[in-house]
Amino acid sequence: MTSLSGITPSGRLTLGNHLGALRRFTDPDGFYFVANLHAMTTRHDPRRLATLTREFATLMLAAGVPEGTVFVQSDVPTHAQLAYLLECTSYVGELSRMIQYKEKGNGRPMTRASLFTYPCLMAADILLYGAERVPVGGDQDQHVELARDIAIRFNREYGETFVVPQLNKAALATRVKDLANPTAKMSKSDADDAVGTIRLLDPPDVIRRQIMRAVTDSDTEVRHDEANKPGITNLLEILAACTDGDPVELAKSYASYGALKQDVADAVLAVIEPLQKEYARLTTDPGAIENLLAHGRDRALEASAPRLQAATRAMGLAGST
Ligand code: TYM
């Protein structure tokens, strides 16, 4: 069952991205990419985009994403090509309902048109490869659902062409919260120095300090209770995700917030430090990274071309007979 996922280089990678998505990019036959085309749906700085794209690709390799599966989206033109075809099968009504569009753009005249059509590009990413599994955090579920709807409709109207992806299975830490504001998502688009956002490449002492200063709740009981104790619940979920534990069970072993925070910091650093070491090692050999990405690009191009061609033909475009 082919797995596929992408990460948008719109800010420096966070612990949320890693726990919710990146560490689940494990299929040696999968397709995992830096979604740089998706990073242009809001105002962007071209130089920063180029730098972040390279940083993300290197971090994916450092995180152990299987070699040959990693590529940069813009290197594989089939994504943008299929996206246009899918725009021609999607409706303004369904795209207007996307939460991300409603939050970031709806109603503002200077909103980029690509923010509106972005879910069609994401559907193209998924459908090009016949991916059934799409490991993503909870904030992307609605987009995967739309990709399913688009695939089902396309198959019905133009003939069986696409595999319908499955809905994301509930995994641990699909919604890591901001440490300073535990009712909000930890987001890479927050300011680089935001105290509640753990960045994968921040120095370990900074990360430890951030965790020790995480906002907690007014009483002292360690309990998993999202509604009444969002701060502690978030820490328990991070700990559980880093140690493959159960957040409700883990809560029982703590009598104080301090001890919990110490263990969370240790567990997070045990995940992040090896990744940082591998990142540092990889950056000493830019040529090797280049080669890996070229290999990933060629493989992705080869795997995606037949489905693009099938969709092109099915829609009756010139040269398709
Ligand atoms: P992006 O770049 O916003 O996020 C990358 C992945 O990280 C997950 N994530 C989180 N998981 C848990 N807790 C959090 N606080 C948290 N924040 C982010 C996201 O859910 C995502 O899985 N549109 C996508 C990228 C994309 C894609 C695709 C994904 C483009 N094409 C095709 C899957 C398939 C995005 O912007 O994710």
General description of the model:
With 321 residues, this protein is mostly helical. The protein has two domains: 4-170 and 285-315, Rossmann fold; 204-281, Tyrosyl-Transfer RNA Synthetase, CATH 1.10.240.10. 50% of the residues lie in helices and 3% in strands. The chain has a three-stranded parallel sheet. Helix 2 (46-62) links the parallel strand 2 and strand 3 (70-72). The mean pLDDT is 95. Bound molecules: tryptophanyl-5'AMP (TYM). Tryptophanyl-5'AMP binds next to strand 1, helix 1 and helix 6.
List the helices and strands and how they pair.
Layout: E1 4-7, H1 15-20, E2 31-34, H2 46-62, E3 70-72, H3 78-87, H4 92-96, H5 99-104, H6 113-127, H7 141-158, H8 204-212, H9 230-243, H10 247-251, H11 257-283, H12 286-314
Parallel strand pairs: 1-2, 2-3
Helix pairs in contact: 2-11, 3-6, 3-12, 6-7, 8-11, 9-11
Bound molecules: tryptophanyl-5'AMP (TYM).
GO molecular function, one term: ATP binding
Pfam family, one: tRNA-synt_1b
EC number: 6.1.1.2
Short overview:
The chain has 321 residues and is mainly α. It has helices at residues 15-20, 46-62, 78-87, 92-96, 99-104, 113-127, 141-158, 204-212, 230-243, 247-251, 257-283, 286-314; strands spanning 4-7, 31-34, 70-72.
Distance between the termini: 31 Å
CATH classification, class level of the largest domain: Alpha Beta
Number of strands: 3
Bound molecules: tryptophanyl-5'AMP
Proportion of residues in helical segments: 40-55%
The residue-averaged pLDDT reads: 95
Encode the helix/strand succession as letters: EHEHEHHHHHHHHHH
User: How many helices in DSSP terms?
Assistant: 12
Give the CA-based shape: globular
Helix/strand-derived category reads mainly alpha
**pLDDT below 50 for ≥5 consecutive residues: which ranges?**
none
**In CATH terms, what is the architecture of the largest domain?**
3-Layer(aba) Sandwich
| Biggest β-sheet: strands ordered side by side in the sheet | 1-2-3
Q: Could you state the CATH homologous superfamily of the largest domain?
A: HUPs
Question: How many domains would you count in the coordinates?
Answer: 2
Enter the CATH topology name of the largest domain.
Rossmann fold
C-alpha Rg, in Å? 20 Å
